Amino acid sequence: MTSLYNQVPFVSTVFSLYTTCSAIMMLFRTILNEILPKEIRDYISLKFVNIFSSNFQSSFTFVIEKQWEFVDNQTFRAAEVYLQRRLAGLSTGKLVVGSSSLKNPEAQLKLGVPVNTKIIDEFEGIHLEWTLHSSETKLYPYEKRYFHLTCEEEFREKIMTDYFTYLTKSAEKTLKHRENLHIYTYSEDEWEAAIFEHHTTFETLAIEPNLKTTMIDDLDAFSKGKDFFKSVGRPWKRGYLLYGPPGTGKSSLVAAIANHMRYHIYDLQLQSISDDGELRNILISTENRSILLIEDIDCGSDASRRRQKKKKEDDSDEDDDGLWSSCGEERIIIFTTNHKEKLDPALLRPGRMDVHIHMDYCTPYVFKKLVAMYLKTNDHVLFDPIEKLVLEVSVTPAEITQQLMASKNADIALKGLLEFLETKKMKKEEDNRVEEEGEIEEAETKEAEPDAET
Q1: Do 163 and 248 fall within a single domain?
Q2: What percent of the chain has pLDDT over 90?
Q3: Distance set, CA 257 to CA 97, 177, 180, 270, 446 (Å)
Q4: pLDDT exceeds cutoff 60 at 174
Q5: Compositional bias of type Basic and acidic residues: which residue ranges (predicted)?
Q6: Which residue from 22, 136, 257, 410 has the least number of CB within 10 angstroms?
Q7: Within a domain: residue 247?
Q8: Can you say whether the dihedral through the CA atoms of 379, 384, 385, 390 is positive or negative?
Q9: CB atoms within 10 A of CB 380
Q10: Sequence-ordered list of residues with C-beta below 8 angstroms from that of 94, at least 6 positions apart, any chain
């Protein structure tokens, strides 16, 4: 008992010293929080962590930044996709959840990677730790995002060679089965996304069977052509030119391509681009596995015409090819025009527009396809007279569709379509008659002119 009493002053002294140190540390922390900006505090903390890790731990950390050489880091993108897919089964303290479905409030929630949260993964028995970091400093006017992937030092090489390959392949497989597609429009120096809800597929697309087969085969060959394009030294891209009158289904074909490939769409208006530098910056900010859509390319602005004139003067075709080549890999570039004859011949050569697709007026096959979809019938007494008129007059699939949507009753809708086509035929005949009379009158006037001079 005496020894215990003898120790009381010592315990009291230790407790007093601990209290004093704690107060000093709290005061020091308060001063730091008030004086030093958050960025500097985070930097100091990170340095302490790095010093501790290098001296007392046998771990190694891979840093995967979102930006790499002024473009999006595809390894970062692969990690993001991979972790989003596996989050439900991974060990993590919290999750980001959300939904982009405006029409279905009961839609299944999507999972996102939370910031500053450790996510545990395992690869062939190797323990892995993922953490997504985000910071904004004066050096970076935008949000800087980067992943830390930590493993034991002894597994560094295996993770570098095997795990990252597995990660990339898993992400590619996920991207090929995207649930939601987006369409992006460029505004105020950035791409703005919206859910792409055009449900046209090659199954529902009303085009001739041979064209449909050709398109599907070409797209499938392109999607499997990575090794081929690499072996011949060409960018992994495919260019399509869709040309024809308005209303012949160019936009629907674009939607079918996007849904078939599961590619996002970047809708670019060239008229708003001032020079090649701006265009290049826009292109490198788009993702791989996407469609770059440039509609009405014949309607170029003055700036576009100046670019074309300068390229002709400088003979800089290679530079233009380089511009499109900066658009990443596994890209489809689609141009549309109502007037192919107005395009600069340089735009039509292979490498820029590999496949030219003529979207023509309605045919009997397309007419029957539209009737089957909208009226749910494959035969009707009015089919024959309508098909004959379809061959005689120039009518677009859009015009046919508009008439078919007038009524769900096949008799009423087809009768209205027949009357529409007959009116169109009479107008065509009247226009031809007026044109012929004008040509005759012009010829007679020319014949009379020498006599008048005489």
Answers
A1: no
A2: 40
A3: 30, 14, 15, 21, 54
A4: yes
A5: 443-454
A6: 22
A7: yes
A8: positive
A9: 15
A10: 114, 117
Task: Answer with the one of 357, 385, 420 that is the final residue of a domain.
Answer: 357
List, for residues 368-384, the tens digit of each pLDDT value: 999 999 999 999 999 99
Coil, strand or helix: which one is 206? coil
User: Do 348 and 374 belong to one domain?
Assistant: no
3 state SS of 368 = helix
Distance CA 151, CA 138 (A): 31
- pTM reported for the whole predicted model: 0.68
7 within a domain of the structure (yes/no): no
Highest mean pLDDT among 191-195, 274-278, 288-292: 288-292
pLDDT tens-digit readout, 214-244: 999 999 999 999 889 888 888 888 999 999 9
Domain enclosing residue 113, as ranges: 22-184
Asked whether 85 and 176 are in contact (CB, 8 A), the reply is: no
**Torsion angle (degrees, nearest 10) of CA 174, 266, 342, 299:** 170
Which residues fall within 8 angstroms of residue 142, CB to CB, at 6 or more apart? 136
| Cα(22)–Cα(321) distance, integer angstroms | 66
Residue that finishes a domain, picked among 336, 357, 378? 357
Lowest mean pLDDT among 90-94, 135-139, 307-311, 364-368: 307-311
Residues 272, 234, single domain; the answer is: yes
189: pLDDT strictly greater than 90: no
